[in-house]
Amino acid sequence: MAEARNSPRRISARVKRLRAVQLKIAGATYQQIADTPTDAANGDMRALYPNRQRAFEAVDAALKETAKETEGSASELRELELQRLDSLHMSLWPATRPSRAVNCEQCGSTLWRDTDLQAIGRVLDVMKRRASLAGLDAADTTDERLVNVLQQQVDLASQAMLGAMEKAGIPAEKQREVMGHAAALLREADQARG
């Protein structure tokens, strides 16, 4: 039979995990968390956890539990914010259109309304916020990081090739020739890819 969620042992374990997370947030190491008295205020000087591994596991479990509990509400909140941004965008959009005829309700005549440049700026701000909230800009930074990692790998491979040729006693002029061929092959492969 499973133990009830509100059993004294489970409540005590949750309180200990919460204390461990509070200590971690305050900057304590896992060893310091483990060594902290369970309840010094009430005279319980036993260590919170037997070792740093158990302290790590407690903090990790508490954070995963919190993430699991908030995951649904976070996505609901994100969706609500996206709907609000959509509504704001729609309300600003008419003011961003080029000059247009507008009927004056007071005098009945046709007036020309100019494009509102401030409204355009506000729409762009809304669009940026929406892209950020929806994660649309994350792909760009991931692509940039991938390019940087690939460039570092190419640089390391080039350095390794130069080192190997130098160790093999290949003259400097021949080394430059080989590296030139390697660079040409890389360019060809890059062009063929896309």
Describe the structure.
- By secondary structure, this protein is mostly helical.
- 72% of the residues lie in helices and 8% in strands.
- A two-stranded antiparallel ribbon has the order 1-2. A two-stranded antiparallel ribbon has the order 3-4.
- α1 (8-25) crosses α3 (52-96) and α3 runs antiparallel to α4 (117-134).
- The chain is flat.
Features of the shown structure:
two-stranded antiparallel ribbon; 72% helix; mainly alpha; flat
Across the major sheet, the strand order is: 1-2
Shape: flat
* Count of DSSP-assigned helices: 6
Gyration radius, to the nearest Å? 31 Å
Helical content band: over 70%
Distance between the termini: 61 Å
Strand content: 5-15%
Sketch the major β-sheet. 2 strands, antiparallel
Poorly predicted regions:
none
Mean pLDDT equals 82
Structural class: mainly alpha
Q: What is the number of E strands?
A: 4
Element order: H for helix, E for strand: HHEEHEEHHH
Brief rundown of the structure:
The protein has helices spanning 8-25, 30-35, 52-96, 117-134, 138-167, 172-193, and strands spanning 37-39, 44-47, 100-103, 110-113. With 194 residues, it is mostly helical.
SSE layout and pairings?
Layout lengths: L7 H18 L4 H6 L1 E3 L4 E4 L4 H45 L3 E4 L6 E4 L3 H18 L3 H30 L4 H22 L1
Antiparallel strand pairs: 1-2, 3-4
